[in-house]
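Review form for a predicted model. The reviewer records the input and the model, then writes brief findings.
Reviewer: anonymous (R2)
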Amino acid sequence: MKNNNQIKITYKNDFVRIIEKNGIRNFSSLIEWMESFNNNENVGLLTLSGRDLGSAISISKNNVKSIEFI
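Model under review:
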C-alpha cells in the first residue's frame, strides 16, 4: 500500500533518497514536480526547504531516474 507521506527518489547514479512529508516544508511542490516529471512534462530545478534550519534539497530532471510514492 502506498503512503502519500513519503516519496522515493532514485537518482541516475542509483542513489535513493526517501523524503518524508513532515521533513519538508514545500512537500506539495515536490508532489507537483513528481507528477509533471512522471507525465514527461518539462520540469525545472526544484529546491525543497527542510524543516531543519539551513537544510535544503535540490532535484533536477537531469539526474533523476524515477520518483514515486512509497
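Findings: The chain has a mean pLDDT of 93.
Further findings: Residues 27-38 form the longest helix (12 residues).
Recommendation: see findings above.
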